[in-house]
Design goal:
This protein has a single domain, classed as Glycosyltransferase (Alpha/alpha barrel). Helix 12 packs antiparallel against helix 13. It starts with 16 loop residues before the first helix and ends in a 15-residue tail after the last helix. The protein has 17 helices and eleven strands. By secondary structure, it is mainly alpha-helical. The strands form five sheets. A three-stranded antiparallel β-sheet has the order 3-6-7. It has a two-stranded antiparallel sheet with strand order 1-2. Strands 4-5 form a two-stranded antiparallel ribbon. The longest helix is centred in the N-terminal third of the chain and has 25 residues.
Length: 459
């Protein structure tokens, strides 16, 4: 007892930066599989593609070897045609759909080992690789790492432009909501309504996610049926891109996916310069896709909107993902000023942590603060926006957003996403890419995560 107050009654002191850094590192360590990092050992027990890219950036400032291993492990699952799969499976982990459902052995391009899924995720990998190089303690080793990864990154981007673009350069498309990284976003609702099938012919399956996370924070059963149908369609077509492009009822050109591709092309050009290769092809891809993105500008809402390829029209939903061209320096300064002024209507005050953008505007009639990509605050969207704000000369706003990401983790823990009202953590717990993005944000703020030896590739 002190000053008349029991010690047990004192509010817990918030973690300082050093303790927060230590906790973030512990989250990454807890999710380490021995060769790669799972997003969350219970909910997502394998390696996911864009998670791995973010996780490598989180390792980069303090563990060069682990950062390099993370990306090497992911690219070990790359297909012969350049496809970088959205999941690289770890043996024995309980998850649906697992490798026995994907049956990627039907494609001659799929690797025999490791087992993978047959679809992709947003291309942020060149951005990640360049960050690993820039933060490396052993720059000579990092240069060799870039030389090793360059042809794999080039093949990945070439796959997207060869198989996923309906014209030279320009915008690439996705064939499954999972490829967007924003699984149940209302951006896909109209397209998913076109996905019709005989329920009796749908392959039997049992969801695992709702046994681990709260069902009201996950996609609905109806949405999952459509996800499963689209996987089974790709499987029946032996993952042949030309056949899928013709048959799929779901084909969209997402702003977020293409914005990340623009920046990854620019970063791939920089990687080429570092290792003495020709940057011109990657710069041309970046310019082409950036120009095509500008055609998706929505003047009324000051945001970029997705394009539904099958419907031949723009998607009539605006989300914070439409701000992502700022990350890739796509819009002219006047257009960027309009975007920042409105922030897609998605800006929210998050408890006591500051402000952030929600995955869907609270003013949208479909807003659901608990439901996955239909309202919660996601660290990745805010990290992308923060980088864009910095690039367009809004350092104060960028710093505020970085602070919010850090404070959410400090006050609520490292969760998959957060309540846009209270800041409470939601979805998967002990979430690796949240820990990684917080480490990256703290590094941007000048806090040093420290370093470890780079002599061992798995540490």
């Amino acid at each position: 007892m002190s000053d008349g107050v029991l010690e047990t009654e004192r509010p817990a002191e918030p973690m300082g930066d050093a303790e927060l850094i230590g906790t973030a590192k512990a989250v990454l360590e807890a999710n380490w599989l021995g060769h790669a990092t799972s997003p969350s050992r219970g909910l997502y027990p394998h390696q996911w593609s864009w998670d791995a890219a973010c996780i490598a950036m989180g390792y980069a400032s303090w563990n060069q070897g682990r950062a390099e291993t993370e990306l090497r492990s992911l690219f070990a699952g790359q297909w012969l045609n350049g496809l970088l799969p959205h999941i690289v499976f770890t043996d024995g982990a309980r998850y649906f759909p697992g490798p026995e459902f994907w049956q990627t052995e039907r494609s001659p391009d799929a690797p025999e080992s490791p087992k993978t899924s047959g679809i992709v995720q947003p291309p942020i990998h060149a951005t990640s690789a360049l960050q690993v190089y820039r933060l490396a303690s052993d720059r000579a080793r990092a240069s060799l790492f870039l030389e090793e990864l360059l042809p794999k990154l080039a093949a990945w981007h070439a796959y997207l432009y060869r198989e996923r673009a309906r014209s030279d350069g320009g915008l690439v498309e996705i064939w499954h909501p999972w490829e967007s990284g924003m699984d149940n976003s209302p951006l896909w609702d109209a397209a998913l309504e076109r996905v019709s099938f005989d329920a009796g012919l749908l392959p039997e399956y049992a969801r695992v996610d709702v046994d681990i996370a709260e069902a009201n924070e996950r996609p609905s059963d109806g949405e999952y049926d459509r996800y499963v149908y689209l996987v089974s369609m790709c499987r029946e077509l032996a993952y042949e891109p030309s056949r899928i492009a013709q048959a799929t009822p779901f084909a969209l050109q997402p702003v977020l996916f293409n914005s990340l591709l623009v920046q990854s092309n620019r970063d791939l050009a920089e990687i080429a310069r570092i290792v003495g290769a020709d940057p011109a092809p990657f710069e041309a891809w970046a310019d082409s896709t950036a120009s095509a993105l500008d055609d998706l500008w929505d003047e009324e809402h000051a945001v970029y909107v997705d394009f539904d390829v099958k419907a031949g029209e723009r998607v009539a939903v605006q989300t914070a993902a439409g701000l992502s061209p700022l990350f890739a320096r796509v819009p002219a300064s006047a257009r960027a000023e309009s975007m920042v002024a409105q922030l897609a209507g998605s800006r929210v005050a998050v408890g006591d942590s500051g402000w952030a953008v929600a995955s869907l505007s609270p003013a949208d009639p479909g807003f659901q603060p608990l439901r996955y990509w239909r309202g919660p605050v996601w660290p990745i969207l805010n990290w992308v926006l923060q980088r864009g704000l910095d690039r367009y000369g809004y350092p104060s706003l960028a710093a505020e957003l970085r602070s919010t990401l850090v404070e959410l983790a400090r006050s609520s823990g490292f969760y998959e996403h957060y309540s846009p009202v209270t800041g409470r953590g939601q979805g998967g717990e002990q979430f690796a890419w949240t820990a990684a993005l917080v480490l990256d944000s703290l590094h941007e703020n000048g806090a040093s995560p420290g370093s470890t030896s780079t002599s061992r590739a798995d540490h």
